[in-house]
Write a structure and sequence with these properties.
Strand content: under 5%
Order of helices and strands: HHHHHHHHHH
Low-confidence stretches: 1-7, 205-209
CATH topology of the largest domain: Tetracycline Repressor, domain 2
Shape: elongated
Number of domains: 2
Radius of gyration: 20 Å
CATH class of the largest domain: Mainly Alpha
Structural class: mainly alpha
Mean pLDDT: 84
Number of helices: 10
CATH architecture of the largest domain: Orthogonal Bundle
Distance between the termini: 49 Å
Number of strands: 0
Length: about 210
């Protein structure tokens, strides 16, 4: 890496290199040396910008969580359109794509990383799962307000079923998002009794945007 590279550019190059190592080789192989070798720079470049490797990993996770938050915003924007099951299936397939799924075990097995993340943000110790949980819960609440989810639905329990089930589907598989058909079956089962069909919706139940 040339000297004098802008800090932000250097950080992103290191983050992208870490992501490639994580996806290709797994969290056990992700070391500072592996990252700098992948980025094609001296090891000192990483330590010039971060206090230690856990500080680097914390920033990496928060950066990817922020990207995930941008994607989850699209789910809330879909409230009241399409079908609840269809919206959730698409969102969960994206939320548990290869990068988020690779990051989750990294967080799970590094105590110091979880501690750094908790210091950085509330619920940060499970940053990726927290983003998914918050997004699904908010979307379901929006749909309940619109009358497309039954008023007596336990949103918290339904959210845990959807996020936990999608996480299990995405675990121990080849790289790539979980099969959409499998996620669709999970969503359909979880929503049984909670989703209100169009015919069942009371007139005027939908709110205007």
């Amino acid at each position: 890496m040339p000297t004098g590279v802008h800090l932000r550019d250097a950080k992103q190059q290191l983050f992208d290199a870490a992501e490639r190592v994580l996806l290709r080789d797994g969290p056990n192989v992700l070391t500072s040396r592996a990252v700098t070798d992948e980025a094609g720079c001296a090891k000192g470049v990483l330590h010039r910008h971060f206090a230690d490797f856990d500080a680097f990993l914390a920033d990496l996770v928060l950066d990817r969580a922020a990207r995930l938050a941008a994607q989850t915003g699209e789910l809330r924007g879909a409230a009241g359109t399409g079908t609840v099951a269809g919206n959730l299936t698409g969102a969960l397939t994206t939320l548990f794509g290869p990068v988020p799924v690779a990051i989750i075990p990294l967080i799970t097995f590094r105590d110091e990383l979880r501690a750094r993340l908790r210091q950085a943000r509330p619920g940060g110790g499970i940053a990726i799962l927290a983003e998914a949980t918050t997004a699904i819960s908010a979307y379901l609440a929006d749909e309940r307000t619109r009358g497309r989810i039954a008023a007596d639905t336990d949103i918290d329990s339904l959210t845990l079923s959807l996020v936990g089930g999608a996480h299990l589907l995405s675990a121990d598989r080849d790289p790539g998002p979980p099969a959409e058909a499998a996620v669709g079956r999970l969503v359909t089962a979880a929503l049984r009794g909670a989703e209100v069909t169009e015919a069942e919706q009371p007139r005027g139940s939908e709110t205007a945007d």
